[in-house]
Design brief:
The chain is an alpha+beta fold. The chain has five helices and six strands. A hairpin with a 2-residue loop joins strand 3 and strand 4.
Length: 184
């Protein structure tokens, strides 16, 4: 795979969504050997089973996807532009998956799979990699720009997760868009 990106950009969402779609299209050949024999698989690809069956024939699970989310102050941005990344206080990679198991918090009335948080990882924003504009202690109190230091507020993390997992939220919107694109 050759991926060319602009400096200070993160190809994470692009790679995540293409991997998601590739896994949806993946089929596995069925075994034709018995349990006590060496594994032997059917070479008829028309008889191959999908890795992730459609919701009508299987569990309805889908491969996870990862969203790139940033915060600037109390504002949250999904799929940020290069300019938004340059001023980000925090950058997070949020991985989301689906589950058929009933979860009381995310109970769905339509019987659709519920979204669940798989992981949340912070990434150093480009602003932390840049040197501060201030070169001396005297410049600090005169308003020279300095990159953000420290972590994220818990309220911002909670707000991010809620915006992704809530019914009709960003995660559901992305999942619906992927279903429309893949024909699933």
């Amino acid at each position: 795979i050759l991926l060319l990106t602009a400096p200070n950009s993160y190809p994470l969402p692009l790679l995540s969504l293409t991997t998601h779609l590739a896994l949806l299209a993946t089929k596995l050949p069925g075994p034709i050997s018995r349990i006590d024999e060496d594994p032997l698989f059917n070479d008829d690809w028309d008889a191959a089973q999908p890795l992730y069956p459609s919701s009508g024939t299987g569990t309805g699970s889908k491969p996870p996807f990862t969203l790139l989310v940033i915060s600037v102050g109390d504002n949250i941005f999904f799929d940020p532009s290069r300019e938004e990344l340059a001023v980000a206080d925090a950058v997070c990679a949020v991985s989301v998956g689906t589950t058929q198991a009933p979860i009381s918090i995310n109970e769905s009335r339509e019987g659709k799979p519920k979204l669940r948080l798989l992981s949340l990882r912070t990434i150093d924003p480009p602003s932390r990699l840049a040197a501060a504009a201030s070169t001396s202690e005297a410049d600090d109190d005169q308003g020279a720009w300095k990159p953000a230091r420290g972590g994220m507020k818990r309220s911002i993390v909670g707000k991010m997760v809620k915006m992704i997992l809530e019914s009709g939220g960003v995660g559901e919107e992305v999942m619906t868009g992927l279903e429309g694109f893949s024909g699933g």
